[in-house]
Known about the structure:
alpha/beta; Purple Acid Phosphatase, chain A, domain 2; 6-stranded mixed sheet; 5-stranded mixed sheet; 4 helices; 17% strand; Metallo-depent_PP-like; Calcineurin-like phosphoesterase family protein
Amino acid sequence: MRLQLLSDLHLESDPGYQPPHAPGADVLVLAGDVGSYQTGSKLDGDDFGLARFSPLRGGPWRRVIYLPGNHEYDELPLIETRARLRRLCNELGLIWLDREVLVLDGVRFIGCTLWTDFEALAAAEAAAPPPKGAHLRGAAGAAHSLAVRQAKQRDKALRAADFWLRRHTTRDADGTPMLALALRELGLADQTWLREALAAPRPDGEPTVVVTHFAPSLRCADPRYGLVPGTAGFCNALDALLPQADLWLHGHLHCAIDFVAEGSRPDGSTGRCRVVANPLGYPTKGERDGHRPTWLIDVPGTASIA
Length: 306
């Protein structure tokens, strides 16, 4: 099976953009941030820009998988907008994958937005070299020092996120803007769901493709910016989950990603997971230089059926 992956098209800023169809693609995967109605959006209509991908409306793709990113929810109520997007997928003949598991032609797709929990840099502190003199404090002192450093990293990440979220964020049922702590709860719930989905048995041994909007690992961080407090608003620290998938597709960061992660699975075997992102990004920031519009990604252990 060959997949065409697109994300972060941000059609609200460039509504005339029409992604090309990749010849030979069995499935198009849209990994979020396709279009939004934030203040200043140039999108017409009420389809978030998704109609152009519809197999029912002349789109060239036979099958299209979609899950929302964070920006689809900008300045809109979360629960109502999620339901609206799901209904829209049904009307357009798109396959909704947010918190869904789908077996398609012998491939298991598992998807969720995977909102960040803002823990990635705090988690990285545990692997970082201890500060000078830490060995003099004993085990209890070292543990306390680590907890303090992690709390500082977490606080920086939450404050950095709130600075941006006050401009554009989703809203809860009473219209209150959802800031970092509220979005963290969404991320923790997504993680719980995803762990359970990955742990489910695969009686036919089908390959697993995970699709998320937010990135699963700090290894996906944009090298233009390095590891800064804002990075934890883009990347999770779920490296231990990577070996349970064969392919992990994501968006959110506006830089191309392609690497292979190896690690132990729960049964003790070694897993290899290819992690890929192919975002478009904004036209004014040079973010489209690494985008490959007709790139085809092979699902391990499968053949093309197009």
